[in-house]
Amino acid sequence: SKxxxxxxxxxxxxxxxGAEMGPEILRRAGLVSRIKRFDYQVVDHGDIEIESIxxxxxxxxxxxxxxxGRANKKISDKVASIVKSKELCLNLGGDHSIAIGSIxxxxxxxxxxxxxxxxxxxxxxxxxxxxxxxMHGMPLSLLVKELADRFSPVEGFDWCKPCIHVRDIVYIxxxxxxxxxxxxxxxxxxxxYSMQEIDKMGIKEVMHHALKNLDPNxxxxxHLSFDVDGLDPTITPSTGTPVLGGLNIREGQYIxxxxxxxxxxxxxxxxxxxxxxxxxxxxxxTAETTISVIEKCFxxxxxx
Length: 304
Ligand SMILES: N[C@](CCCC[B-](O)(O)O)(CCN1CCCCC1)C(=O)O
Ligand SMILES: [Mn+2]
Ligand SMILES: [Mn+2]
Ligand SMILES: [Mn+2]
Description:
eight-stranded parallel β-sheet; 15% strand; binds ligand X7A; binds manganese (II) ion
């Protein structure tokens, strides 16, 4: 089987420069050769060309809307074509706003997909509920049909029709959820396994229940959106919004092993690696941790 790798050097969904260097640091740390070790043929699509849009003033309180919209339209088109050519689409971010285009594009090729969101954050603020106006905290709100009528279209997103239902999402690793996000999660009953549930149930039970109620018949393609800040900041320090008390490396590896065991992983986002926010050592630890977790998606077995 084939993996299509797409670099997305984009960081306008948040204010900290350096997230656009995520693809480069992961490639340099040997991500591609690690994936080649397993029976996957790797197709490297290089990096998406990101256009800069001068004078991209806020739309309401939404920052850089046109830049984020333009980039995500391109991402959607590219991801749709990669998935349609039967490659497992591996998107290297970039900040988490790139999930708007990656999930939108994935849905074009696989309309029945489900989303596994590994993150310290819920990333479902609407343009009206966001405390920051940073679009990396909003991707899911622009994608779910149930929220479409709660805010007017964002400048630059006329192409982006919501394509998933709230019930097609499961959260793993939450520990920093804004009030408006909590309301949405409760209101729509989105399954959310925060670090509290993970401590209470254990990662084995969490994965069992998460996959069971997301896709009881075990037939639907899976979109994994993996924010490295879902892991504990001691093992992924080079990231923009670190939160203490995260997933440890073994929990991260177990999540990926269980997803790989379904055989239905269809697209993966790896986001929010920012090498400008850490020391050389922090960057090495972050990249190595991320690769050792992600490679479990591709059949790497700790038992050999
Ligand atoms: N929820 C936050 C953070 C979003 C992180 C995006 B991710 O997950 O892609 O990295 C705001 C978080 N919160 C605001 C008040 C002070 C503490 C942090 C937001 O800005 O929407
Ligand atoms: Mn996050
Ligand atoms: Mn049980
Ligand atoms: Mn995120």
